Amino acid sequence: MSVVRFGVSVEKDLLEALDAYVSDNGFTNRSQAIRQLISNNLVLEKWKCNNIVAGSVTLLYDHHKGDVMNKITDIQHEYHDEILSSQHFHLDHDNCLEIIAVKGKSKNLTELADRLIAVKDIQHGKLSMSRVN
Ligand code: NI
């Protein structure tokens, strides 16, 4: 694939943030980091559509913390049409792993996952999706 050079103007603090991102993630240079940032964001954008997809939302949390369990249950009830099943694993005394199987329009699943992952005290959250057709 041919490579095209182009100039970009950014604020100084944004460039410093980019350089920190480059070094924190072990990129060779700014170009490599920018390439990845662009392609990740374009992939995310592609999912905000009406394609029917299926996948899973994985959540990790400490069930003692705050109101995390009630909040994620409330959100899941709002998306009962999209949720096929969910499975809860008690990993140890504190930590829970929840895997929620989902199917529906990718924009709805993205919205559901974003809301779940944004709940305070969720330690880790990830959505993975594949096109069904
Ligand atoms: Ni548990």
How would you describe what is shown here?
This protein has four helices and four strands. A hairpin with a 4-residue loop joins strand 2 and strand 3. A four-stranded antiparallel sheet has the order 2-3-1-4, covered by helices on one side. 13% of the residues are buried. The chain is of the alpha+beta class and 133 residues long. The protein folds into two domains: 37 residues; 80 residues, Alpha-Beta Plaits. Helix 1 packs across helix 2. The longest helix has 17 residues. The chain binds nickel (II) ion. Nickel (II) ion binds next to strand 2.
Secondary-structure element order, N to C: HHEHEEHE
Shape: globular
Report Rg. Answer: 19 Å
Q: In the CATH hierarchy, what is the class of the largest domain?
A: Alpha Beta
CATH topology of the largest domain: Alpha-Beta Plaits
How large a portion of the residues is in β-strands, by DSSP E?
Answer: 25-35%
The level of helicity is 25-40%
Query: How many distinct helices?
Result: 4
Report the end-to-end length measured between terminal Cα atoms. Answer: 29 Å
Mean pLDDT over the residues: 91
Strand order of the largest sheet: 2-3-1-4
Count structural domains.
2
Task: Give a brief rundown of this model.
By secondary structure, this protein is of the alpha+beta class.
